[in-house]
Amino acid sequence: MAVAVEGVVEEAVDTAVEAVVVMEAVVEDVSMDTMVVIGGGFKMDKLDFPQRLYSVGQEPFPNKSIAYYSDDSKLFPALKEALEADEWEELKNSRVGVFLKFHEMKFGWASRLVHYILCFQLDCKKKFELWSLVGVEPLRFSLHEFEEITGLNCEYVKNLENPLVEVTTDMKAFWAQMGVNFDRGPSIDELTTACQMCRTWSRDDRLRLGYLAIYAGFIEAARTSSPTRASLTRLVMDLDAFEDYPWGRVAFKFLMESVKGVDLTKTYAIEGFVQVLQVWVYCCLPEFGAGFGHPIEGSPTPPLLAFLGGKGKRRLQENMLKQFYLLETKTKSFTMKDYSEMFSRWDGELEDEKADNIVKAVFSSGWGWEQSHWPLVGTKLWTNVKVEILPMKTEAGQMVRSLKTVSPSRTQSDAESRKKARESPGLDVETMKGEIVRWLTGLTSNMVEGLSRCENTLKTQSRMIEGLTTQVGAVEKMVREGWKEDHTKADSSTDSPFDGNSTAKVIIPNQPKQGQGYNPFANSDRQKLSALLDWVKLDPKWRQKVKGSSSHWFYILLTPTKWLIDTHMDAGINLLRLRYTKHPEWFRSDRFCILDAVFTQMWTAKYSEFLASPANPDGSAFWISIPRRRIVIWDSDLAYATDAEIAKAVNPIAHMLPYMLRMLSTGAERELYTVDFTHERESGVPQNKQSGDCGVYCLKYIECHALGMPFPPHELCDKKIKTIRSQMASEIFDETRINGTEKRDYKHLGLYD
Hints:
single chain; 4 domains; 27 helices; 45% helix; globular
């Protein structure tokens, strides 16, 4: 291996030396210019500028779209529906109303554009300032640019994230009304849920809900389940004080903390109002913005509202650079102010003299940026050069591995490359040599590290194959010896259904435990149930059981023989989805999907032969196995419907699902879905003998199957239905924060987009 690596490095060094020789023939001794302030002007002297973050041509590829959380697709439609028209307009016309105006524009997110501009960054040490280099022009994104683009209040205040706010009884009551823990601010999910029950609130409380939605959905814009900062959200109790707070500065701070913390070489998410970065690029590159930003006629103000955005297009990076190399149009590097006001004030900001030198350079008369101001090599040792491991025979006939570097794109001949090198403005030879040595050192280190990882992976896989071979041999031996089914049952009956089968552990000792992650029939947590009942009693009419209220929704869920409605079923399914997201190891597999009741309703409604029939009326659950092309039905009342009625109810799914799969498949796979799925109704499942609890049985069938365990008849029975309902209600309230609604609203129930 060492020989192979040395060979590659020698070859790369030879190529590098050749490049240096070419550079020596054309490079003149160019010294960096700098400036010193004298009597209000600038004089040129030796000065340094920041290096690039990534070497030219080695910027990270945009593999996947950037994940973001601002302008939540569920929160703001729910808010607009919950508020009166004049309340919505009042929020739009407030000092933070630009966010709602932006939401109404339906701005088109371009992930690749933002990724490219972040990969063009210079290595700026400041926490609240970002510089990107497009061509030879440095572009600044600081509080000044953010303020100009958004028009928000960005003035300086002390203790920005910890203002002094008096805790009052009204504040606690409002938090309780939203169903939010008082020690934290409401999350996006909690605010979306609160929108479903705010109709009876006072006008001021509904406006408070709107301001909190703007804060959580645009200013902080963290994950939808993450609580917001209580210290800032409590300002909402004084509506005037809330509106006058410098939310622009807060929003910029949250965004910069997230941007500065991401790893651009991996899949990443950005918190905060990330769309402003896209508008910033449009403003800095006017020609590019005109061609790709879909500008609005008349150029509305602030600039945030002047572009409709749009999806990223092919060759986006090249079109950004074209502004300099072909169009030669003027760019806007930053917002111009008096020099004394060019640097925004921040508590705890870091100093970066090299970044400040960029501003000084622009303020000098006759200054022009050149390629020689920006070394080609970045400060981050990362490369997108791929390394292939090729088999090769030695003179002795032994197979060894050889490394071959593969350029990401080989579109130019060597002659063209040398020609471009001669024509491009260069660096002094010693600097170039140093940069090449640094780059090769990092590349060699990455190669060796990569080979080491490959060897470790191969060793691990070899051990796994040996282990699997041993396990298969053990299984074959059991089959030959005639393992009896009753022995298996006898062994498994001694184990708890929640601890796994000890026999399986002997057969596959290294297999991680999968499924049966918790007991779905455990007694309800008294503390959780008490919290739910206390919340229900906040409704002054909870004893009257007003239909359509949240308290009545939970009353139905808690009470035996009360028929569950679709939103109860959706809430139960969402609880399972949430647990599956956080703990996939609890469940039987990582290759299954749990659908809402709306799935069968939508499909049957569109199925012409089923229009006159009610969809699945008897509280059944389906298990659809795509590999087996079979639908298994668990019916809580086998006497309710005949086999013919069940077949008619299942027919839309059995017929349309394989058709959909056939249309989505290619090649030989299409032949797997040429006929309808078969179905069977299992006998022996626990039965709901007292009418009204079939929905609960249905949810428990799904939960047990998802956990990979049987349906225990001594646990899932009418005698224990009150305990099961209490457990279900308290866990839905505690884990999902769904506060109940009689009206199905697909925007807040976690359905697939």
